[in-house]
Amino acid sequence: MDKLSKKIQSLREECEAATDRAEAAEGQVKQLTDAQMEREQEIISYQNKIANLEEQLDTAEQKLREAKAAADEDEQSRSAHDELFRRAQHLEEELETREKELKEVRETLRTVDVKAEHLERTIQKMTAERDEHDAKYEELNAKYLETKAEFESTMAALDNM
Question: What InterPro entries does this protein's entry cite (predicted)?
């Protein structure tokens, strides 16, 4: 009986050890199951994050395309603005040149006006002198004709004598 008791005791110990091992294995299975559930939840969380990030990436790519299109439009606008600015500068320079030319022409015109006035006064003076000379000529011509007539009459009288 002693053997039997020892055997039973041994079996009990084995059973307890097996129960302990089974409980430990169940604990490990529970831990592993819990860890697996956590991992699955992490995977789901990461999948959600990936989906959100992909959505954000799509949104960012769309915004980038829009920004590039806007930048292209802005560059075209800037190029057009720069071209208009250069044309405006060119026109301003041309305007300055034309204003200088106009100023020079006005100065020349003033000089010509002054010379014309001077020439007009000279013409008036010469016309007055001509009129005086014409009057003197008429007076001297009349005296000449009178003197000539006197001379001819004196010569005729001398011839008759």
Answer: Tropomyosin
